[in-house]
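Workshop exercise sheet. Pairs work together: one partner reads the sequence aloud, the other fills in the structure field after running the prediction. Swap roles for the next sheet.
Pair: D.N. / O.F.
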Amino acid sequence: MARPELRNDDGGSFLESRDYARVRFAGDSGDGMQLTGTQFAASTALAQNDFATLPDYPAEIRAPVGTVYGVSSYSINFGSTEIFTSGDRADLLVVMNPAGLKTQIDDLRTGGLIIFDEGAFTDRNLTKAGYGSSPVDDGSLAPYQTLPINMTQLTLQAVEGYGLGRKKIPCAARICGLLVSCCGFLNETVRRSPIG
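Structure field:
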């Protein structure tokens, strides 16, 4: 199966050939960030890469949904070389909502890629996260590459007909599948594994 060819606004490829990469998943506690990170790490291991992880749990266990106090994240540094730490600055930041972006943006390297759930960047969620205007529209994300994906809508379409409600759908799992494919981990071992 060929990797999807992702292009940024300038027509350049989002994908780079590197010895290692640092990815951070961030969203509300309950969005599945720890599970997504763990599944991505398992796929990394099955692809015979070295890796180090760092799960980060929210400051408040039952923080209001969409606030910066309830953000959960998972970092993974993986590659074909020996990896010793989970890394400092992320190369790729995957955020499920504005609060995830707000708490993690400072740890993304300049020129790094932000994949975000554009369906979650509503006025209400932006206000809950403490934004006065949308960072997607106000130019504050200009130092980074951005890839908006309406993960919520795509996931709803994928499970249509199964009787699942909006709250039972693991949107983060779809982004994990996208990244596994883009990183070239989608081989027979990953396809046949019970966790892949």
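Discussion prompt: The chain has one domain: 20-192. What would you look at next?
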